[in-house]
Specification:
The complex is a heterodimer of chains A (about 200) and B (about 220). By secondary structure, chain A is mostly helical. Chain A is built from 9 helices and no strands. The chains are: A mainly alpha (about 200), B mainly alpha (about 220).
Chain lengths: ~200, ~220
């Protein structure tokens, strides 16, 4: 239990998807101009991440890994399909996003309108695929995968809302011409990443 | 007067040369004026993460150029037969296929680099440069210009990647491509490597500075994104 709690805190603060691995930077920089839209995107990302990473875990461990297919027939035990991981992971994510989009549109049109274009864009958010790939690389168990995906999602949410809040203030500052917009956003993110570095080494 | 009368004689449907002016622009624009990272804000994630050393940066840039060039080519070839509603999934499958190829080649021939790049090879699939160019260019253009556009954007990405990696490896470790650049006597006299350069935030600062430099050189780029 402590181990899981530790992992949860670690994936939010110490190994934040944005500040430590730079995953999902594109949408992070593009959609952080207003706190409101940033919050919408953040929630959508948390949701899709928590949905897809456990599904990908099941696909990986019951279909792709060496020996995973033994439940069909013992002769399949030596089949190793892990090279198909990329294609299956991204299909799961694309499918899940499509499904989420349809469900949200049907049951909560107001949320659907609030999220707008961000919903389909989540498919190509590196943070989501990245979480699945980290899950594969670090060989997490099922519970760990769940906790890790929730933590990463919250980490992304936190990062994008924080940057949006700072950028709303930056609008009223005098910034050198060449540095306006993207340039200063990069540098602010760098400073935030430095601040997040102070969390490193935290153990519960 | 004579030139004016000669002009219409030219065949109207003149076949465009392989490296006509327009195609050259398609190829070279992304290197600077329309750089995918600093101007279009695409593909920033991996640009920041794999730039601690020059070698993985070069390999990543090559991998991305290959994937983006060939996915643009393939999508441009089949663009008329892709149904609009599922085009994202078709694009993703083709990109994922190419990335799987690159990943397997890396694992077979350069295992240590492949370990170092870890998940970032797989993340070429969701690299916005590939998807962005497919949506913005390859879906509407002929195969050859799309192929050039893919190469151009891959190289534009590579330029930023390698610049940042050179800066970070030089200041962070005193080396470039693994060769010692800062001489030993400098260390003997108290020179210390800048540890910050090896940490993630340094990549952000370096790209921020690059953008500043690029935009003060070309004022028209100010506030495009």
């Amino acid at each position: 239990m402590e181990h899981l709690l530790n992992m949860f805190v670690k994936s939010i603060f110490v190994e934040n998807v944005i500040f430590a691995f730079f995953l999902g930077m594109c949408s992070y920089l593009a959609i952080s101009k207003k706190v409101k839209t940033a919050t919408g995107l953040g929630i959508a990302v948390v949701f899709v991440m928590v949905m897809t990473t456990p599904i990908n875990y099941l696909i990986l461990n019951y279909m792709l890994r060496e020996g995973a297919l033994a439940w069909i027939h013992p002769s399949l035990a030596s089949v190793d399909l892990t090279f198909l991981a990329f294609i299956l992971f991204i299909s799961t994510i694309a499918g899940a996003v499509q499904m989420v989009e349809m469900v949200v549109e049907k049951f909560s049109p107001s949320l659907y309108n609030a999220l707008g274009i961000f919903l389909p864009l989540i498919t190509v958010n590196c943070a989501i695929l990245g979480t699945s790939l980290f899950m594969q690389e670090r060989e997490y168990g099922f519970l760990e995968t769940g906790v890790f995906s929730v933590g990463s999602g919250i980490g992304f949410f936190l990062a994008i809302v924080l940057l949006a809040a700072i950028r709303e203030r930056l609008k009223y500052s005098k910034i050198p011409d060449g540095l306006q917009g993207l340039g200063i956003a990069m540098i602010v993110t760098g400073l935030m990443a430095l601040a997040f570095l102070s969390f490193s080494g935290i153990q519960l | 007067m004579s030139t004016a009368t000669v002009a219409p004689v030219k065949p109207k449907e003149k076949k465009e040369g392989l490296l006509s002016k327009k195609n050259r622009r398609t190829l070279f624009d992304p290197l600077d004026d329309n750089n995918p990272i600093t101007v279009q804000v695409l593909g920033v994630c991996s640009a920041l993460a794999v730039t601690i050393q020059v070698k993985p940066a070069i390999i990543m840039a090559l991998g991305l150029t290959l994937v983006s060039a060939f996915s643009s080519l393939i999508i441009a070839l089949i663009r008329d037969s892709i149904p609009g509603r599922i085009r994202m999934i078709v694009q993703l499958i083709i990109v994922a296929l190419l990335v799987t190829l690159v990943d397997q080649v890396l694992k077979a021939f350069m295992y240590d680099v492949s370990k170092q790049l870890s998940v970032f090879v797989g993340l070429i699939i969701t690299n916005c440069i590939v998807m962005g160019r497919l949506e913005a260019f390859a879906m509407a253009q002929k195969p050859w210009p799309s192929f050039l556009d893919g190469i151009g954007n891959g190289l534009g990405y590579g330029i930023i990647l390698i610049t940042v990696a050179v800066v970070r490896e030089f200041w962070g470790a005193g080396k470039i491509l693994g060769f010692q650049i800062v001489p030993q006597w400098a260390y003997d006299h108290g020179y210390v490597n800048n540890g910050l350069m090896a940490l993630p935030p340094a990549a952000l600062f370096t790209i921020g500075m690059y953008i500043w430099w690029q935009r003060s050189r070309k004022p028209k780029l100010v506030n495009v994104s």
